[in-house]
Design a protein that fits this description.
Hypothetical protein yfbM fold
């Protein structure tokens, strides 16, 4: 089963409503439920596909640990929705948490990030999707991680500037 990651901005009202109504998570992700929040209708989203675990590793140097806020792809925030743990996670972060995240990501250079790229170690650590040493012929994992890292920095900076929170969904 493919595990893909989507990030989506949300207002404080939407964050609260998702925590109160976890059964509405799927409708929210599919943009069929905005909890009557007109401001939230202009949400931003970013699909980082299968790169989430590689980015987690490059951001923190670990598969599942790390320090907040840079461990946000796999930890932190508040769990929302009713997703069996082997099928993914959905977590929400407050606007203040997003500001701290954007600041931390903004301070991290691509050179520092890619200096941590080690295909053999990533294979050993079982970093998803697990083809670091033998990627498909049409894919350069290092280039893909670099590209998504830059998108992630821009995305979180924009969400922080709007004063919105964040939903991180892996499934």
């Amino acid at each position: 089963m493919e595990m893909l990651c989507t990030l989506r901005s949300l207002t404080e009202n939407q964050r609260q409503k998702l925590l109160e109504h976890p059964d509405k998570l799927e409708e929210f992700i599919d943009d069929e439920e905005d909890f009557g929040d007109a401001e939230g209708a202009r949400f931003l989203d970013l699909d980082i596909g299968e790169t989430w675990h590689g980015l987690q590793y490059l951001l923190t140097g670990t598969a599942w640990e790390g320090k907040a806020p840079l461990d946000f792809l796999v930890r932190g925030g508040e769990d929302v929705g009713d997703i069996p743990s082997d099928e993914g996670t959905a977590r929400v972060f407050t606007a203040d948490e997003v500001k701290a995240l954007a600041k931390s990501l903004g301070a991290l250079t691509e050179k520092t990030l890619l200096g941590r790229y080690d295909p053999a170690r990533m294979q050993e650590e079982d970093i998803y999707p697990g083809f670091w040493e033998e990627p498909p012929p049409d894919l350069d994992p290092k280039e893909e991680l670099s590209s998504y890292f830059e998108e992630l920095k821009k995305f979180t900076a924009t969400v922080a500037k709007r004063g919105h929170g964040l939903l991180v969904f892996i499934g």
